[in-house]
Amino acid sequence: MKNWERALVSPATTLGEAIEVLDREALRIALVVDDQQLLRGTLTDGDVRRALLGKQTLEATVEAIMFRHPKVAHRDWSKARMLAWMEEHDLLQLPIVDDDHRLIGLETLHGLLQRPRQDNPVFLMAGGFGKRLRPLTNTCPKPMLRVGDKPILELILEGFVNAGFHRFYISTHYMPEQIRDHFGDGSQWNVSIQYIHEETPLGTGGALGLLPHDEIDKPLFMMNGDLLTNINYLALLAFHEEHSGNATMCVREFEYQVPYGVIEADGHRAKAMVEKPVHTFNVNAGIYVLSPELVKSVDPDTRVDMPTLLEKEILDGQGVNLYPLKEYWLDIGQVDDFQRAQQDVMSKASD
Fold it and tell me: Where in the chain is the domain with CATH 3.90.550.10?
């Protein structure tokens, strides 16, 4: 990144001097700070044009024309959260301040889009039997079934890799050697992969207890190994960081239409009739972000399902947030789903 400190100007700087700073540093922004390094405003190319169109002279002070309420990031924000904030507000630059609003850095959209490495661990659940997909899974674990020319689990892995993630754990139980032989240590994708083997099935959340807890130092992504999705993982991480809580669970909107006319009654009298009403529910999408504290609360060799684990968090008041998943998502649980996945991938390839 270019040296943002050379883009600092004081409120008393003239417009002419500020234009020289903008031209020299090529950041398309000047950062207006006082003697205490407190951010007072910003000056962009657009601000300069508006000032000149408003008949301001080059001797006018920056204080008279700067933007006084710029969007900022705070020192504890991850790059994922910054990127989501910049995309939401259509920003090219984002000043970073401390708790006292002192300027401590500058992030640019160009810099963030260089696919920075994300150090959050990713835990992919690949130990299931895939009973509903038999006979396809008689000789192949469900996550290794090919959709197009790649296994489902590889498509999931690549989605995370493309977003900059590089620390992976994969849980195994059923036919683990096929998964290990295909993915190895992850070097083919320039990532690291560790395997968490369940000697006996521990439920959808029990494998968390087998993770090396001393290595889980950031919020952990956890995802079922039989999903196809194009979810924005960085946006999900930003959402989790923005909302306090021990867990964020992705949910899909599911509609169910009652196939009959429904009668609302008061005792023996009919109050209303609704023909084939549609009810909408949020259903678990099998993708989570979990705090390190929650991960470490699961003891080794403890059998627990994720709904049970999260329900306990809810009852304890720890906070479980819901992230509405609007992007493409498909749970490959049955043969019809597997066939649809093939069609979806072929359709995407022909676009």
Answer: 118-350
State pLDDT tens for residues 262-298. 888 888 888 888 888 888 888 889 999 999 999 999 9
Question: Distances from the Cα of 333 to the Cαs of 28, 92, 119, 256, 306, in angstroms?
Answer: 50, 42, 30, 19, 17
Active site includes 55?
A: no
Q: Where in the chain is the domain with CATH 3.10.580.10?
A: 4-112
The residue annotated as part of the active site, out of 276, 312, 326, 348, is 276
Fold that domain 118-350 belongs to in CATH: Spore Coat Polysaccharide Biosynthesis Protein SpsA; Chain A (3.90.550)
* Domain at 4-112: CATH code: 3.10.580.10
